[in-house]
Amino acid sequence: MKPLIKHEKIIRIGAAIAGILLLPMAAFAYQASSIPRSQLLNPDELVKLLQSSAGAKPLIIQVGSHVLYTQAHIPGSEYIGPASSETGLQQLRKRAEPLPRDKFIVIYCGCCPWNHCPNVKPANDALRAMGFTNFKVLYISDNFGANWVDKGYPTAKGD
Predict the structure, then answer these.
(1) How far apart are CA 31 and CA 14, in angstroms?
(2) In the chain, at which residue ranges do the beta strands (DSSP E only) sit?
(3) What CATH number did the domain enclosing 46 receive?
(4) Does the residue 35 lie in any domain?
(5) Which pLDDT belongs to residue 34?
(6) pLDDT per residue as tens digits for the range 100-147
(7) Which of helix, strand or coil describes residue 52?
């Protein structure tokens, strides 16, 4: 009987630790999911926009990890840094500050499934707080590889 009690305690402790570790992920899931659909842009829509000869092209900003950016990114996009960090948010604000508030901007990450992305919501909130009115968040449901690269959309590598 005593070994069973030890195992039960280990299981309870393990479950508590797992719950603590999953709390931040749950917060991120809530964050990305709280971006209004009207503000989302699907990858195929962005590709059409970029291939169109009509209208001004958006400023495209990657707000995820540098490793992801160097592996593959949207041609012409700018790397800012992970918006889940204060440094990344400062870089985003610095880049956006001189722009007209109606500048067409698209932000994206693609590090992981949408409901777990820690970067798009803070970037979205920063641009909104700065008064930007014409920006979209690229909706990447799974990850950049699956939802952009594997579909054969234009891709660049390196810095």
Answers:
(1) 26
(2) 40-41, 59-62, 78-79, 105-108, 135-138
(3) 3.40.250.10
(4) yes
(5) 83
(6) 999 999 999 999 999 999 999 999 999 999 999 999 999 999 999 999
(7) coil
